[in-house]
Amino acid sequence: MRILIVSATELEIKYLLEQSFLSYSVDFLITGFGATAMTYQLTKHLNNKKYDLIINVGIAGDLNNRFEIGEIVNVAKDTFGDLGSNMNGKFLTQFDKKWIDENKFPFKNGFLKSNYNHNSLINKLKIVTGITVNTISNSLEILKSRREKFIADIETMEGAAFMYVCLNEKIDCVQIRSVSNKMIENETFKLEIENSVPKLNTFIIDFINSLK
User: Fold this and answer.
1) What is the pTM assigned to this prediction?
2) Do residues 16 and 57 touch, judged by C-beta distance below 8 A?
3) Measured on CA atoms in the order 175, 205, 54, 43, is the torsion positive or negative?
4) Bridge partners, 25 (sequence order)
C-alpha cells in the first residue's frame, strides 16, 4: 500500500517525520498554509506519484466549544466556508448564488465527503463537519454566521481543498485533525500545539500500523 501524509506545516507532523514505517511505503508532503497552497502542491505532487490512500493530518479550531484540546476527530465532510458573496452583512455561498450546482461532482449537498471509512481505529473517532476558510476570525458576527450557515464543528485552512483534489483524482482520502484552539468571540487566538500535535501523531502512527 502506498500512502501519502499531507500537512500544511512540518510542525503538525514533526513526530511522524521521525517515524519509520516498515510495512508500507509512506511519503510526506508539506504544502504550506491555506487552500491555494494545498491545491497546487498536492495536485503537482500527484502528477508524478500515485497512492492508494492520502491522509491529511493537522490541527483545527473548535467552532462550538464542544471538544477538548487535543481531541482527535475524523472530518467526514468539509466545504469552503468563505467562498461566495457577503452583501449587507449576509453571506451567501457559491451554491446559494447558483454559481455552481451543490451536487456537481465532487460536491454532495454543498459538501465534500470523505470516501474512506473502512478502518476500526478511524471509526472510533468522532465524525465531524468542517469548514475551510482563508481568514481566521474571532468576530462575533462572522463566527455566528459560520455556525448557523454550515452547522460545522471545526474550522481549518486547507481541509476542503485537500478533499477536493483527492475526490477529483479518485483517490481514497481521510482528514484527521486534532483540536488545537477554541474559536471563541473576542478572545485572544492561541494555538495549543504541544497539547494537540503529539496525540495526533501517535494516532496516525497507530492507524497506519493497523492497516491491512
Assistant:
1) 0.93
2) yes
3) positive
4) 2
Q: In the chain, how long is the greatest CA-to-CA distance?
A: 56
Identify the three-state secondary structure at position 94: coil
Residue appearing with cell numbers 483517490? 171
- Nearest 5°: the CA angle 16, 19, 20 is 140
CATH code of residue 165 = 3.40.50.1580
Q: Taking a C-beta distance cutoff of 8 angstroms, is the pair 70, 201 a contact?
A: no
**Residue numbers of the domain that contains 100:** 2-210
Helices (H) and strands (E) in the chain, counts: 5, 11
Q: What percent of the chain has pLDDT over 90?
A: 72
Q: How far apart are CA 84 and CA 17, in angstroms?
A: 37
Tens of pLDDT along 36-57? 999 999 999 999 999 999 999 9
Answer whether residue 71 shows pLDDT above 90.
yes
- The per-residue pLDDT for range 186-207, each reduced to its tens digit, is 666 677 888 899 999 999 999 9
Unique residue bearing C-alpha cell 477554541: 182
What is the total count of domains within the chain? 1
Show the cell assigned to 15. 513526530
Phi-psi region of 98 (alpha: psi -120 to 50; beta: other; left: phi over 0): left
Cell of 14: 514533526
Cell numbers at 96, concatenated: 446559494
Q: Are the CB atoms for 16 and 205 separated by under 8 Å?
A: yes
Measured CA angle at 11 (ends 7, 15), to 5 deg: 90
C-alpha cell at 130: 468542517
